[in-house]
Every structure is written in C-alpha cells, then in structure tokens.
Amino acid sequence: MEENSQLEFLWSKVKQRVEKLISPLSYTAYIQELQPTDVINKKLVLKVPSDTSAKTITQHHLDKLCEAARTSDVGLKGVILVVEGSDIFTLNEQPDATEDTDVILDKRYTFDSFVVGSGNKFVYAAAKSVAEAPGENFNPLYIYGETGLGKTHLMQAIANEIAQKHPALKVLYTTSEKFLNEYVDSMYTKKSSGTDNEFHFRNRYRNVDVLIIDDIQFWAGKYGVQEAFFHTFNELFAQHKQIVISSDCPAKELKTLEERLRTRFEGGLIADIQPPDVETKIAILKRKALEKKYIIPDDVLAFLVRGTDSNVRTLEGRLNKVIFASKLHEEPITLSLASNALQESIGGSAEQEEVTSESILKATCQHFSITKAELLGKSKRQDLVRARQVCIYLLCEMLSLPLVTIGKEMGGRDHSTVIYARDKIAELMRVNDVVAKAVTDIKSAVLKE
Predict the structure, then answer these.
(1) Torsion 218-155-309-316 (CA) sign
(2) pTM passes above 0.85
(3) Where on the phi/psi map is residue 147: left (φ > 0), alpha (ψ -120 to 50), or beta?
C-alpha cells in the first residue's frame, strides 16, 4: 500500500466516525476539506486551508475529531491541525523515541505449572509437541477456549520451553493488540524521524523462528491488519517456521476474519481448551495455594470450587480472598473462615462482585493521598510509580481481568508493564513491611466499602 493511499485509508475511517458526531453543515464546511499529510505518535496530521478554518475547528470540532480518531479502530490517538505558512498551526510535535515492544514473558507460565485435566490434556500434548520440535509438528497450532481457561499460560509455556531448550531459535511472543499497534505505526514512513517503520515491521515479524500471537479475535473486522498478518503467515509458513495462534472461538466462527486466513488456520491443528471439571478445579487451587506457600484443607478447596464458573481467574480470586481473610484475622484457614470470608452460600459471591477496578483505584488514591489523574498519568515521581505498581498488583490479585484489560484501566499501559509491576510488588511484599502494609490496608479498604 503506497503512503498516500495509507493516509487516505486512515482519514476515511476517521471521517466515517466524525460524520456521525457533528452536524452535516459543519462537516461539509470544515471537515470535508481537510487533507491527511502524515502520522506522528499515532496522531493523524491534517492540513487545513487557513488559520480561520483551523481556529473554528479547534474551538468547536477538535474534540469530536480526536474522539473519532480514537474510536475508528485503526489505532490512532488523535489528530493534529496544520496550516501551511501559519505561525500558529505548525507541526511542533516530535516523534516519540522507538520503544522496545517485546511482551515480557511470565516465567511462571511453564508446562510444569500447568494443571492438566480431562478438558485440556489434548491441547497440552499438542503444545508440548510444538515446543519440542518447532516447525515440524502441527503448524500452525490454533488454540481456542473461553476466557480464563489457560490459553495464555500455554502460549507462554511454549515460548519459555523453546527459549530454554532451543536457545538458538528466535521466539517472538506478542498480543494481537501489540501486532495491531505496530502495524498502524508501519503504515507509512515517518519522514520526520527518518525511520522506515514498514521495513522495521516486516523485518521484526518475518525474521523469527517461532511466532506466537495471543487473542486474534480482536482483529475481527480490521482488514488492514489481517492483510499484514496474511503475508507474514505465508512468509513464515513457506520457511517452515512455527506459528501458534490463540482465540476465544474456533477459526470457522470468526465470521469477520478473511476466509483465506481461516482456511490457513484450519490447515494446521485446531485444539480447544474445555472448562475444567471439579477435580481439575481443585488441583488448580492446590497449585495456586502452594505457589503462595499455603496448604488449604480439602474441605475448603471443595467449598471454593462449588458453584463457580469455568474461569480459573474466578477460582483464584476466591482463594485470594480466603488467604487475605486468614492474614487479616490471623486465623488458620478453615471451612468456617472461608465461608465467612466470602459471605455467601455455596453459589453466589455478592460481595466479591462489588469489588471493581474503580473501587481499587479509589482506595489506592486515598491511601497514597494522590489524585486519580496522578495515578494514571505518566509522571516518573517515585511515590507515584510505587502507587501505580501497588494498584496494578491489587487489580491482578482481586479481579478476574486479563492483563491487557488491566493495562487499559491503568491509563493505557501495556501488557509487559503490568507484569513487571505485579511481580515487583509481589517481590517487595516479602522483604518490605511498608509495601506489604500498604497492600493489606488498601485491600481492607476495598473489601469494607
């Protein structure tokens, strides 16, 4: 795709949105005449005919334009208005420095730490086979299942295993959101920074031995990124490089995914993760408890799994609540303590449902005496950085949310930042009483609301 057509594609998507946000008269008079000229820091640069038009757009329509850019599903963050020869509307924004976009692997996600049961033993065996002989067995491997059943665990286990046993191989694990964002950045050459992002994008994803991409269902309806992945897929497949993909549903059910992609996925091995049975749920809780250095009685484990859905994160959330209650009251974990901690009969979890990301953010702000804007902002001040890390840790521990979602809740931070913050606080809690007390106090405040 040539640069002009790439810019026009982005602009067409933004115009489709903004046309619904402002009056037809204003759209015709001010928006229709704008011309896309560049993209800087994921902001579309729009050329305006005159200072007068630019001032009017800034005063009355700029917010809507930026909103249209953010919601146009092409990865843009906003727009910049420029007027040729103007002293006011000039292009002052400088491109951000190129960041390392690798997603950090969680070393805890290994095959040994994955609990195998009747519902996942097939996909587990397939993943192990791929890790033992990348590019030789089951290519591509397509893993699907509902949220919270262990897809990400298996995907990262493959990456960790290959990195350990085949260190000469180049393994790239990423998320669909990362791939999409890098694709948007690559859609044109940033003349102002002198870098060829399109070349960098192709080189990054096509010069690997193993490519692992999580949650591709988020590409549904985004045909530009599907096109980019199609060519990447073909290049890697032709070289017998291993490709592993995950989704929340079978390939054939991704109706807005291009047919040529679906058929390629179906040409490999499609393996699904089924919801765990009761025995597997108990085994999962036992392992989670041991990781936290707790031994939970069998009757408590049986109580915790009764009436729960298939989401493993839900199980872990219930376990965390009981462990916290044991610490808070300085009592051993018993069936009575577990029942009181959850404040429920075997089925519901009314109180737990009241714990939200907003309540955790609010309690964190109150504890550290900071504003929500400071908590979610970009300041590197040490006290704010620590508050953010604690908040991320609590979001991971108290809610059943994917790491990508937690990153969005924390002001748009990426997957790797969330993992780092979570692990950093978990480590500090063992050696730093101040941090441990802050986590305990904030948890207590959230649960008492």
Answers:
(1) negative
(2) no
(3) beta
